[in-house]
């Protein structure tokens, strides 16, 4: 017999209604939600349940609870931090190694580049070109290299026309921050990455989906092979949630 689904807590159901009402009203980041007394009456719940609902939404990055007189719940734009934490914890309890992330990127990022080739506009391409040029201009500065590397992949993912890809790449890049897990990027390696980024940019600027996908696949595979050769222990290390 199929197992019965566990009923959701009242606080979570109320949180879903609050989010639906935020969208229905067209609330934007910075807008205040109705005062507590209004929400208690509107949702026909107790103060404890409402506060649990609001705390849940705060943890998801939907609102921020401002203290003091004139405070209360304020809408904010959620980011990928909640997804990153949840996915990291899921993988940690699966004892998944960091290799999992590189394999996922090898599969996903060529598709993102393929889509972006026909969906990026000129302004987005210009932003991508800046990241490529600035990486080379500051090739001796590893912190700039890492920033431009993340920016390059983030721009492509977010402008692939698929919102899910943007959040996934932000999460995966955060989990596989090379310097944080022991991967070193000497200058010759940074130059190799820049060369790959330049080739991917040229394919995207030419609006060539096949070339964009293939050059991205080569780039991610080259990165995976580099880490495999130089830092095999890193790829085999289990993913863990760190602050």
TrEMBL record:
This is GntR family transcriptional regulator. Residues 8-78 form the HTH gntR-type domain. Keywords: DNA-binding, Transcription, Transcription regulation. PROSITE patterns: HTH_GNTR. The lineage of its organism: Bacteria, Bacillati, Actinomycetota, Actinomycetes, Micrococcales. PANTHER family: TRANSCRIPTIONAL REGULATOR, GNTR FAMILY, UXU OPERON TRANSCRIPTIONAL REGULATOR. The keyword Transcription regulation applies. It comes from Zafaria cholistanensis. GO terms for molecular function: DNA binding; DNA-binding transcription factor activity. InterPro entries: GntR_C (IPR011711), TF_FadR/GntR_C (IPR008920), Tscrpt_reg_HTH_GntR (IPR000524), WH-like_DNA-bd_sf (IPR036388), WH_DNA-bd_sf (IPR036390).
